Amino acid sequence: MIKNCYGLYNLFEVVTYTKNLKTITNDPQLMEEWELYVARGIVGKDEGFSSEQIEEGLALGLMPQIVLPGRFSKEELKAILDEFYDWMHGKDLDNLTLKVTAHGRGEIAELDTSDVERTLDTICYLNDKSDRAIIGEVVFHLGAVHTHEEEHKIRAKNHYSRLDCTFDISKYREVFKRALSRLSELRERYNGIALVIENVGQINFDVAPSRAEIPEFTKSDSRWGGTRWLPRELQLGDVGCGWDLVALAKQGFDVCIDVEHLQQTVEYSNVFNVQRQLGSLVWFGQGNYFEEGRIYIAEGKPILYKEELDLSEFIAELQGNIRICHLGGQTSMIFYDEYNGRRVPRIGSHMPIYFPGDENPYVRDKVLAERMARECKEWFYEVLPALHAAGCRKGVFEIEVGSQTGPEWRQAIETSKRNVLSVLRDL
């Protein structure tokens, strides 16, 4: 899978309209309300269209989220989508809800959004080619104040800690305002496609070694080998971590809640908030307060939340604006597992959704695995009912296991689906 759960790459996701969900689910009564997807790639080793992953997901009773890489030119993307279009009709799958994800380099918060527009133009091409709107929604991240290169240079120059902010409140307000303006312009230009905003994680809460520091045993592991390790210097200015999503929703934009990202933000806010950090008086005063995000920002200091982010209150504020959610089994951003008698770092993102009683083949420390399973179940029994009450009825499994196909992947998805359905049946 291509997506990085910490927002290191720009994410676009596109979903078509559904006609009849019961044709592919093995739980039609429940699925009259909830639609479940799984991320699926459509590009083969020869760089042409491949249906292998789609068909494997359909066999599990899950609709496909189509992953479309952004490394191709507009003409190459058109060629791939032409083949996808022909295959879809050849398989008589017009009645499915399809979710297409495309990655571009540009983000809405950047001055140059040509990559975003290229992706949207390609989507319009596919819709125009058909006799209906095959693609109806686009879900994406808004971007950040700095690129990783800028972040690295500022940190090296000022000797900031890993949690220190590298910009001031005025810069963050500028980026937020620009993102909202560009988003509004794109909505007007591409008014046939719904633009949906995905929350990003509070990625400055913890860091892992850089890719060069990953030991060989991790690189070759079926689960962890493809993990996208975070650099030590991270962007702290991502737009759309928490309450700023509510401000965007009030402007008429719907949102996509990634439950792993949300967990990171909750975890961060539980530590870095006004009550817990009373000695940090530099944040106090309206000049450093970003009201839309309910955060205090001062360069050279950690971002400080006004108060802990309350999950139920936050999701309730987005009532009616949550069109879709992303599902993964992360319980903490970084954890340390046993390997040959020592502890090694792991990134918990895109883990299968394991509950107590499930065998977790990816965590060697069994006491740790049991604790993670309990925490995962507790989290899903908190977040899914809240999302359901707020009107969300679409969920996408974003789980990375090996090559994203084969027996190991199928087992991980089947376990994750079973556990999610067990929560939804209790609603």
**Straight-line distance between termini:** 31 Å
CATH homologous superfamily placement: Divalent-metal-dependent TIM barrel enzymes
How many DSSP-defined strands? 14
For the largest beta-sheet, the strand count, sense and barrel status come to: 9 strands, mixed, barrel
> What is the count of DSSP helices, taking H or I runs of 4+ residues?
12
CATH architectural name = Alpha-Beta Barrel
Going by helix content, strand content and strand pairing, the class is alpha/beta
Helical content class: 25-40%
Strand order of the largest sheet: 1-4-3-2-14-11-7-6-5
CATH topology: TIM Barrel
SSE succession: EHEHEHEHEHHEHHEHEEEHEEEHEH
List unreliable stretches of 5+ residues: 1-26
Number of separate domains: 1
What is the CATH top level name? Answer: Alpha Beta
What Rg is obtained from the alpha carbons, in whole angstroms? 21 Å
Strand percentage: 5-15%
Mean pLDDT: 82
Question: Could you explain how this protein is built, in words?
Answer:
This protein is of the alpha/beta class. It is 35% helix and 15% strand. Helix 3 (74-90) packs parallel to helix 4 (114-129). The chain has helices at residues 28-31, 52-59, 74-90, 114-129, 148-158, 169-189, 216-219, 244-249, 259-271, 311-317, 366-389, 407-425; strands at residues 12-15, 35-41, 63-68, 99-102, 137-140, 194-198, 254-258, 289-290, 295-296, 304-305, 322-327, 334-339, 342-347, 394-397. The strands form three sheets. It has a nine-stranded mixed β-barrel with strand order 1-4-3-2-14-11-7-6-5, surrounded by five helices. Strands 8-9-10 form a three-stranded antiparallel sheet, with helices on one face. Helix 3 links the parallel strand 3 and strand 4. Residues 1-26 have low confidence and may be disordered. The chain has a single domain (12-425), classed as Divalent-metal-dependent TIM barrel enzymes (TIM Barrel), CATH 3.20.20.150.
